[in-house]
Write a structure and sequence with these properties.
- With 406 residues, the chain is an alpha/beta fold.
- It folds into two domains: 8-58 and 304-404, Aspartate Aminotransferase, domain 1 (Alpha-Beta Complex), CATH 3.90.1150; 71-301, Type I PLP-dependent aspartate aminotransferase-like (Major domain) (Aspartate Aminotransferase, domain 2, 3-Layer(aba) Sandwich).
- Helices cover 38% and strands 18% of the residues.
- It contains 14 helices and 17 strands.
- It has helices at 8-14, 47-50, 59-69, 82-93, 106-124, 144-149, 174-178, 205-217, 240-243, 269-272, 288-301, 304-328, 353-362, 385-404; strands at residues 26-30, 33-36, 41-44, 99-103, 131-135, 166-169, 186-191, 194-195, 201-202, 221-225, 249-252, 263-267, 331-337, 340-345, 365-366, 368-369, 374-377.
- The strands form four sheets. A seven-stranded mixed β-sheet has the order 4-12-11-10-7-5-6, sandwiched between helices. A four-stranded mixed β-sheet has the order 1-2-3-15.
- It is globular and about 60 Å long.
- The chain starts with 7 loop residues before the first helix and ends with a helix.
Length: 406
């Protein structure tokens, strides 16, 4: 045995126990395939939880990283850098945005957005207008502010007192928002166009358009958390295009760096003016290495053939999973958009999502869960059709074994 080899057991000895990783330790990836320490191959439908949007070891990303690594790695924000400026311009060119703030994670981008909406209201109306309306089952990150805006109490347990001035309405229920909103106190509505951690639940077009109207009527800002749904994931550069609803602020991370940590908050010049010099910052935000890689991601995912390919792969994967669901009676529906799909377990299989994940691993296919009742799929946006077919074949074998034992 290699004396330098580390095992899953070492995790328990050296890591804080807030995660419970599986026994498999991946060591290499190429495209949509991953190999573990023993050389066993898996087809990756997890995508690093919607992060590895161009798969593993993508030659374009490798080239961008290697080229930038020989120039500048990091500068403080006392200075700017070329990759950050190019990426910000690209993001503005491809979205509604006029200004960009860079951070390192979705939580940080959301933290910036939530601070901005309060400061904007404070500047334009006053301190009373500070309340944020968010939604039950939402997820916006793990900082104390973002976990408070997120609508899942389990993530707040033991960390109170939480920041105040946050209310939670029912997702896809406009009437529940109308009961909470007020022109005097509401500064923003924060919503995921597709709730990711909350079960891959898409918003309806009418709901998001209704939120836009409510914000306009009450002088509130509309924030779209596109950390999971953005960066080409739905077959659009960002999901707001699919809904024909333009937010005032949009947050992006995950797929934006294709696996390299980076995040961005996008907004208009008018709203951005409320974060003048010294009001917010990030040591690593706008890191030259991260921005160079993200630039290549954006240059790739904005190509029409890539976005068209996402929709074609989505249809392929969705149909395959629906067929499996019907044959074995395990899924009531397959929902979502593009390559962010949620397979909802039937009543008989409620609470068993983790069993399907483990069964898939046994057959060499990696899937995700989104709660106890939904299997989540977020593969590479350029996963080969042959890999989709093989993944479906392996997953059906897993389902066949799982259901045969019941």
């Amino acid at each position: 045995m290699n004396k330098d080899r580390v095992s899953r057991e070492l995790f328990d000895d050296v890591m804080v126990p807030n995660y419970a990783p599986g026994t498999i330790v991946p060591v290499r990836g190429k495209g949509s395939r991953i190999w573990d320490q023993d050389g066993r191959e898996f087809i990756d439908l997890q995508g690093g939880i919607a992060v590895n949007c161009l798969g593993h070891s993508h030659p374009g990303l490798l080239s961008a990283l290697q080229e930038q690594s020989q120039k500048i790695w990091h500068l403080s924000n006392v200075m700017t850098n070329e990759p950050a400026l190019r990426l910000a311009k690209t993001l503005c060119d491809h979205t509604f945005a006029e200004r960009v703030f860079f951070a390192n994670s979705g939580a940080e981008a959301n933290e910036a957005a939530f601070k901005l909406v309060r400061r904007y209201a404070w500047e334009h109306t006053g301190a009373e207008k500070h309340e944020i309306i968010a939604f039950k089952n939402a997820f916006h990150g793990r900082t104390l502010f973002t976990v408070s805006v997120g609508g899942q109490p389990k993530y707040l347990e033991g960390f109170e007192p939480a920041p105040g001035g946050i209310q939670h309405a029912e997702f896809n229920d406009l009437e529940s928002v109308k009961k909470l909103i007020s022109k005097e106190k509401t500064c923003a509505i924060v919503v995921e166009p597709i709730q990711g951690e909350g079960g891959v639940m898409p918003a309806t077009k009418e709901f998001l358009q209704g939120l836009r109207q409510l914000c306009d009527e009450n002088d509130a800002l509309l924030v779209f958390d596109e950390v999971q749904s953005g960066a080409g994931r739905t077959g659009y550069v960002f999901a707001y295009e699919m809904y024909d609803v333009v937010p005032d602020i949009l947050t992006s991370a995950k797929g934006l760096g294709g696996g390299f940590p980076i995040a961005a908050m996008l907004t208009t010049a008018k709203v951005a003016a409320s974060l003048p010099v010294g009001t917010h910052g990030s040591t690593y935000g706008g890191n030259a290495l991260a921005c160079a890689v993200a630039q290549k991601v954006m240059d790739t995912i904005t190509q029409p053939e890539i976005l068209k390919g996402v929709k074609l792969r989505s249809d392929h994967l969705r149909k395959g999973m629906m067929d499996i669901g019907e044959r074995y009676g395990v899924f009531s529906e397959v929902r979502g958009a593009g390559l962010l799909l949620g397979c909802v377990l039937t009543e008989k299989w409620q609470g068993r999502a983790k069993d399907f994940l483990n069964a898939g691993l046994d057959e060499g296919v990696m899937i995700l869960i989104a709660g106890a009742n939904v299997l989540r799929l977020a593969p590479s946006l350029i996963i080969p059709e042959a890999d989709v077919d093989e993944a479906l074949k392996r997953f059906e074998a897993a389902v066949q074994k799982l259901t045969a034992n019941q």
